[in-house]
Each structure stands twice: as C-alpha cells, then as structure tokens.
Amino acid sequence: MRQTVLLSCLVSMDVMFGSDHMVWPETIERSINVKNEAPFLSEAQKRDILYHNAARFLRLNETVIARHHGR
C-alpha cells in the first residue's frame, strides 16, 4: 500500500503523457485507457499527467491554457 501511495504522489508531479506511436497509432487510445483505469490515481492526478504537468513544463500562460480548454 505504501508503494502505491508513494508512486501516486510521484506520478502526479513528474510524469507527462507523451506519444511517438505513429508506427502504431491505435496504441495511443490504449495508453490513455490504461492511465484512466489506474485505481491509485485521482482524477486530478490523471489530469496532471495528461495536461497540467506538460503545461507547467512548457510554462504555458493562463491565456493559452484557457484557449486549450475552450474558454
């Protein structure tokens, strides 16, 4: 259990979803589904992995982030 909690905390802060699966584009959906089905990740952590960690890494400003979210 402690390993799962530790992994959950580390993943949330340090992991970004990325893909260079152009050879097998059908695996992108499966990769996202695996992450979405991870029972030890909260919804906020899943959003961090798919978007927010990359936005922070790329230093996107609030205007760009709002545009990406259709606001």
Short synopsis of the structure:
By secondary structure, the chain is mainly α.
Could you walk me through the main structural features you see in this protein, from its secondary elements to its overall organization?
This protein has 71 residues and is mainly α. It has one domain (2-68). The chain is 65% helix and 0% strand. It contains four helices and no strands. The radius of gyration is 14 Å and the shape is globular. The protein starts with a helix and ends with a helix.
Give the topology:
Blueprint: H1 2-14, H2 26-36, H3 43-57, H4 62-68
Helix pairs in contact: 1-3
Pfam families: Amidohydro_2
Protein name: Amidohydrolase family protein
Organism: Elongatibacter sediminis
The end-to-end span amounts to 39 Å
Q: Hey, roughly how much beta strand do the residues contain?
A: under 5%
Number of self-contained structural domains: 1
Report the uncertain regions: none
Question: What count of helical segments does DSSP give?
Answer: 4
- Molecular shape: globular
Query: Oligomerization state of this entry?
Result: single chain
Average pLDDT taken over every residue: 80
Main sheet attributes: strand count, strand direction, barrel closure: none
Fraction of helical residues: 55-70%
Order of helices and strands: HHHH
- Taking all Cα atoms into account, the compactness measure Rg is 14 Å
Number of strands: 0
Give the structural class.
mainly alpha
